[in-house]
TrEMBL record, chain A:
Purpose of the protein: The beta subunit is responsible for the synthesis of L-tryptophan from indole and L-serine.
Keywords, alphabetical: Amino-acid biosynthesis, Aromatic amino acid biosynthesis, Lyase, Pyridoxal phosphate, Tryptophan biosynthesis
Protein name stated in the entry: Tryptophan synthase beta chain
Subunit text: Tetramer of two alpha and two beta chains.
Domain of life from the UniProt record: Bacteria
Organism, scientific name: Lacrimispora algidixylanolytica
Ranges of residues in domain Tryptophan synthase beta chain-like PALP: 52-375
UniProtKB/TrEMBL annotation, chain B:
Keyword Lyase among UniProt keywords: yes
GO molecular function: tryptophan synthase activity
Similarity section: Belongs to the TrpA family.
Organism: Lacrimispora algidixylanolytica
Name the record gives this protein: Tryptophan synthase alpha chain
Length: 394, 256
């Protein structure tokens, strides 16, 4: 019966039209995830195309400035295309190709997953169409052009709140329309089974690398992992390797927007309730009648009313902790890391930096924090300027 | 015999869909008995959802109109109670799993049964997940309608074996909405159902003209029409009752 559960969460809640497609995907994934040739091909792409392993950087100045735990940054921002999204996109597009699909479709919020999917599709010669909320195409206009340069067709989504949630709706609708030759490259650890598992597995390379890198640098496992959470793929990619290590604490940072006591946030764990949407049982920002709430964050990548089912379960079990970080705190962290380390983080990742600034000073100097710097901030520079009231003429 | 079984025993069924609360619930309360009067054999009442992923733009917009007008699940239950006093036509709720689950699946289904609703159609609840609602539907005597799609293939027999009320045959790939042509081999889908279980089959998705309805009724026991009717609601607003009823009469005549 029901498959793909994480505690009470997860499942496979899709229209009948898609059931054979998700079953076919599961079968293919079970085959190729144990296929040495497939794994070798993907590993070669990671090494020669993406630039893996990504660095684990000791942020010495930040550590000294905060005066507490030692802070390491996992530099996913240095990956080709500028974020962790490429790990999953290469994996899924390669899988789609093995399955004989000739076309991939994907949703995107900030555009990072869209760019990563368009890149992987260009590399492997598959047709690519990206669905992006109209509001996000405006917030991230440069990424739209970037995807087009890579040969993808970008569809602005005008339904609903015109953001990530609506882009997912529209990509699902397109998948029901044309499923035979098309794979839906879902960008986060969400959606119907087997997507949460597939995306987690493709992203888990982050945590695997961190384990060996931190053992080499510090001779011990980290005490705390911090990552931002929208759907939760970069966080799951970092956390998964350490779930069975009780000494390693983990914190996911969700977007509090203007504050969790306003109606302008995307803080699913802090404010959401149990629901069933986008193919999964999990927590969602919604009203008493199950109408999905319009959410808000300065970060297009965290502007999503749900969270992946495995995170929802880690929250239920207490294995991971989830905190909310406001726009203002994230913008301050964006500027802080730029100045103190010379690294401009994505506004999404800045939520994780912001929480580290709060928590590191209270930790011991012998303790180690690893922050997942999931993406680079170039794409956000214009938006941050606007936020600060600075006029930029591009 | 249940109200639904009775409908299909009397010949080909015409099954219109409307979104509750579009343009407002007072119109819905007039429209449903009037459609029954005009020849509708079973009526699907859509409970609007903020994110209807199986719907095309026409029904998406109807959901938005209804929600903007302040329609809620509780208000719909109140309206349906009043509708039930005026008509005995079989009624099916069509909505997404989240509004049912968040309301409380048992509470929702119990209330629906008490209002006189006969069946429940939930497009994002596939066979593998039906235990979310099935136990409550059985407890309160509501048929949980199974859907089959052009991609279902070997799944059809599994689904049909446990189907109840009628089987909702999705005619085409994609979302709801008017289509000029339906290419699926509907006859084949329906014979696979009938080989497994003697249960009525109704076809939906994409049907809008009397000619299409007539053609589809050769294969099926019923024809479901949504977007074409919702378009009339969008066009005529509070004056939609007469144009919709005249459309219902025309469609019913085409399959009779």
């Amino acid at each position: 019966m029901s498959k793909g559960r994480f505690g009470q969460h997860g499942g496979q809640f899709v229209p009948e039209t898609l059931m054979n497609a998700v079953e076919e995907l599961l079968e293919a994934y079970e085959k190729y995830s144990h296929d040495e040739e497939f794994l070798k091909e993907l590993q070669t792409l990671h090494e020669t195309y993406t630039g893996r392993p990504s660095l684990l950087y000791y942020a010495e100045k930040m550590t000294k400035d905060l005066g507490g735990a030692k802070i390491y940054l996992k530099r996913e921002d240095l990956n080709h295309t500028g974020s962790h999204k490429i790990n999953n996109a290469l994996g899924q597009v390669l899988l789609a190709k093995k399955m004989g699909k000739t076309r991939v479709i994907a949703e995107t919020g900030a555009g990072q997953h869209g760019v990563a999917t368009a890149t992987a599709a260009a590399l492997m010669g598959l047709e690519c169409e990206i669905y992006m909320g109209e509001e996000d195409t405006e917030r991230q206009a440069l990424n739209v052009f970037r995807m087009e340069l890579l040969g993808a067709k970008v569809h602005p989504v005008t339904s609903g709140t015109k953001t990530l949630k609506d882009a997912v709706n529209e990509t699902m609708r397109e998948w029901t329309n044309r499923v035979e030759d098309t794979h839906y490259v879902l960008g986060s650890v969400m959606g119907p089974h087997p997507f949460p598992t597939i995306v987690r597995d493709f992203q888990s390379i982050i945590g695997k690398e961190v384990r060996s890198q931190i053992l080499k640098a510090e001779g011990k496992l980290p005490d705390l992992l911090i990552a931002c959470v929208g759907g939760g793929s970069n966080a799951m990619g970092l956390f998964y390797e350490f779930l069975e290590e009780p000494s390693v604490k983990m914190i996911g940072c969700e977007a509090a927007g203007h504050g969790i006591d306003t109606d302008q946030h995307a803080a699913t764990i802090s404010k959401g309730t149990l629901g069933i949407f986008h193919g999964m049982k999990s927590y969602f920002c919604q009203d008493e009648y199950g109408q999905i709430a319009p959410v808000y964050s300065i970060s297009a990548g965290l502007d999503y009313p749900g969270i992946g089912p495995e995170h929802a379960n880690l929250h239920d079990s207490g294995r991971a902790q989830y905190v909310a970080v406001t726009d203002l705190e994230a913008v301050e962290a964006f500027e802080y890391l730029s100045r103190i380390e010379g690294i401009i983080p994505a506004i999404e990742s800045s939520h994780a930096i912001a929480h580290a600034r709060k928590i590191a000073p209270s930790m011991g100097k012998d303790e180690v924090i690893v922050i997942n710097l999931s993406g680079r901030g170039d794409k956000d520079v214009a938006a941050i300027a606007r936020y600060k009231g600075v006029q930029i003429y591009e | 015999m249940s109200r639904i079984a009775e409908v299909f025993s009397k010949g080909k069924a015409f099954i219109p869909f409307i979104t509750a609360g579009d343009p407002d619930l007072s119109i819905t309360e007039i429209l449903i008995p009037a459609m029954a009067e005009a020849g509708a054999d079973l009526i699907e009442i859509g409970i609007p959802f903020s994110d209807p992923v199986a719907e095309g733009i026409v029904i998406q917009e109807a959901d938005m109109r209804a929600l903007s007008a302040g329609t809620t699940t509780d208000k719909i239950f109140e309206s349906v109670k009043r509708i039930r006093m005026k008509t005995g036509v079989p009624l099916a709720f069509m909505t997404y799993l989240n509004p049912v689950f968040v309301y409380g699946s048992e509470r929702f289904i119990k209330n629906a049964a008490e209002c006189g609703v006969d069946a429940l159609i939930v497009p994002d609840l596939p066979y593998e997940e039906k235990e979310e609602l099935k136990p409550y539907c059985s407890k309160y005597g509501i048929d949980l309608i199974s859907l089959i799609a052009p991609t279902s293939k070997e799944r059809i027999k599994t689904i049909a074996a446990e189907a109840e009320g009628f089987v909702y045959c999705v005619s085409s790939m994609g979302v709801t909405g008017v289509r000029t042509k339906i290419n699926t081999n509907i006859g084949n889908m329906i014979s696979l159902v009938k080989e497994t279980k003697d249960i009525p089959c109704a076809i939906g998705f994409g049907i809008s003209t009397p000619e299409q309805a007539k053609e589809m009724s050769q294969y099926a026991d019923g024809v479901i029409v949504g977007s074409a009717i919702v378009k009339l609601a969008a066009k005529y607003g509070t004056d939609c009752v007469e144009p919709i009823c005249s459309y219902v009469r025309e469609m019913k005549a085409a399959i009779s």
